[in-house]
Design a protein that fits this description.
The protein has about 350 residues and is an alpha/beta fold. The chain contains 12 helices and 14 strands. It has helices at about 40-60, 65-80, 80-90, 95-115, 155-165, 180-195, 210-215, 230-240, 265-275, 295-310, 330-340, 345-350, and strands at about 5, 10, 15, 20-25, 30-35, 125-130, 135, 145-150, 170-175, 200-205, 225, 245-250, 255-260, 285-290. Strand 13 (about 255-260), helix 9 and strand 14 form a beta-alpha-beta unit. The longest helix is centred in the first third of the chain and has 22 residues, at about 95-115. It starts with a strand and ends in a 5-residue tail after the last helix. About 40% of the residues are buried.
Amino acid sequence: MASVQTLENFIDGKFVPCARHIDSYNPATGEVHLRVPDSGEEEVQAAAQAAKRAFKKWSKMPPRERSNLMNKIADIIESRLVEFAEAESRDQGKPVWLAKAVDIPRVIHNFRFFASGILHSINTSTSLPEASAINYTCRTPVGVAGLISPWNLPLYLLTFKIAPAIAAGCTAVCKPSEMTSHTAYMLAEVLQKAGLPSGVCNIVFGVGPRAGEAIVKSKDIPIISFTGSTATGERIQKMSAPCIKKLSLELGGKNAGVVFNDVALDKCLPTMIRSSFANQGEICLTTSRIFVQEGIYDTFVERFVELTKAMKVGDPRDGDNIMGALVSKEHLAKVSRGTGTTSWELSSARNTWLR
């Protein structure tokens, strides 16, 4: 087995060791490939204080300078695109080709998009002649943002939180999923190399009940952005209520595809297959239910099943495979319960080797 890398938290521009760690698995092999910090309140508060100190200067930095730094971050990631894509695949289970085509290019786009956006005026005003007044809106940075991201699109969604936050002049304390932390650690290396001022973006690793709750409860973090389950989102609302924090919650859904009798099946079926199984179906927007009108039902099901069976599933490094491995044995068990099959049957059929 290859050597296991031990990650460190990124606080105040420096990598900081943690006393406790948890194992992170390669979903395609079931082997431990990382030791991730099991951070708690102490680490989160250190990050929050660093972000609070950095906010004083960062929020006053001219947008052009913030934009230049963000474009530099994007350039460095682009120069390491293949390395990032391979790491994302090892950590999450998705095919390498998918991470190369979608995830990492979107990471780069996230930084460049918001780096461009802040160069244009975002303040608005309305003239009210009858009242001899002008009504205007000024948008100012809120402060330290707590950013908690999921495991399905790890760096894609983490940077979709980081980029707008730091572009607006906020600083950040981030927690990626404990199951998919590697590319967030690599991002910290990039932030350091790009010269992002210390404390502007801090990354603490760990599980939700320890690190995540510490972020939500911190009085130094007035805004929370969370992507994940509805149950956790409800808990975040309750925990943050005493501080009346600003919240952005992107929660779970049950997406339905609707197919009518007059559909062009040759166009519909490939789209429905893609919307159902992209990224192993591990996307909040993927189709999880399909309603088919009675007149076309039998034909649709027959052809949908036929196309599904034809998909190649297996080693994420194989460019011919459409799907790789599910992210964890716990998620495999959840899918098994939903399909009425055993985890062993699924893993054998899919050529995944989850332990």
